[in-house]
């Protein structure tokens, strides 16, 4: 390990190579998983495989046979490698952070605010700092943009002309003071695919929150602009039932409490859940 390479974690684990079109369960191999600031190493004792961060991407689609939230799936050349670290919680997210932290990208901060394109913003170099709760873009001159991970609502992959060249672009949408902000980031396909996977993992956390029919109705009503104090009449339930639903939604992280009793405000997780519920209708 070189002097500028830092060990981040080590865990017992398993890995397998997967054909992107595979429909049958792959054959897993036990290994020791070592994640550093430069690569991930799969050590089997008699042999080891090193995957440098610069040589991998996050795949566009993942076969169902390895599609698990705790499984890291990387695209290496024409094949996929699936990796599990049995002793580590949120292992895929830990890997994404290690892969991207300190990367220099091109970024256009707050390019769209409340649906309005900001014509005075342009792309410039920015150093990305990736932490568990925030993504920070540090620009020359001291300016920076901090994106709270739990405020991320969605991402979109694009190809656009950036500084005279056609480049992959990732548009990251998040909420700030009840406004929807879109920041655009460009780099290599590795950069945008890994950052996209990290952001998708962040806003997909809300998918685990199973919602009742009334909870879905309340979220959709909040999403549509119905005031909390009008909720009982709008949904057709009692005030006490609404209060109970608010408490459940607070526990699921879908709303933020504004004042004790009667008022809550939809947050990024709740907007994501409400959008999903509306699409199901």
Automatic annotation (TrEMBL):
Instruction: Please give the superkingdom of this protein's source.
Output: Archaea
Query: Which GO terms fall under molecular function for this chain's record?
Result: DNA binding
Q: Which SUPFAM superfamilies match?
A: C-terminal effector domain of the bipartite response regulators
Q: Name one GO biological process term.
A: chemotaxis
* Name this protein carries in UniProt: Taxis protein
Origin species: Halococcoides cellulosivorans
User: What does the record give as the organism's lineage?
Assistant: Archaea, Methanobacteriati, Methanobacteriota, Stenosarchaea group, Halobacteria
């Amino acid at each position: 390990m070189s002097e500028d390479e830092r060990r981040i974690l080590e865990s017992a684990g398993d890995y397998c190579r997967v054909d992107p079109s595979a429909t049958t369960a792959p054959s897993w191999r036990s290994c020791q998983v070592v994640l550093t600031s430069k690569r991930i190493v799969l050590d089997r004792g008699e042999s080891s495989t090193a995957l440098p961060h610069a040589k991998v991407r996050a795949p566009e689609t993942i076969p169902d046979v390895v599609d698990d939230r705790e499984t890291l799936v990387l695209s290496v050349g024409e094949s996929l490698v699936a990796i599990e670290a049995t002793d580590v919680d949120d292992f895929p997210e830990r890997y994404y952070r290690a892969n991207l932290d300190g990367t220099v990208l091109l970024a256009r901060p707050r390019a769209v605010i409340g649906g309005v394109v900001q014509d005075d913003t342009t792309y410039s170099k920015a150093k990305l700092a990736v932490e568990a709760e925030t993504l920070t873009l540090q620009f020359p001159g001291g300016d920076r943009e901090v994106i709270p991970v739990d405020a991320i609502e969605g991402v979109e992959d694009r190809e656009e002309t950036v500084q005279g060249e056609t480049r992959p672009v990732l548009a990251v949408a998040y909420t700030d003071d009840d406004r929807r902000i879109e920041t655009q980031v460009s780099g290599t396909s590795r950069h945008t695919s890994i950052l996209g996977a990290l952001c998708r993992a962040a806003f997909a956390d809300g998918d685990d929150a199973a919602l009742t029919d009334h909870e879905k109705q309340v979220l959709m009503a909040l999403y549509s602009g119905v005031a909390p104090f009008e909720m009982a009449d709008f949904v057709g339930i009692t005030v006490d039932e609404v209060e109970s639903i608010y408490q459940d939604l607070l526990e699921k992280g879908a709303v933020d409490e504004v004042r004790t009793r009667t008022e809550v405000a939809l947050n990024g997780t709740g907007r994501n859940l409400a959008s999903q519920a509306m699409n199901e209708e």
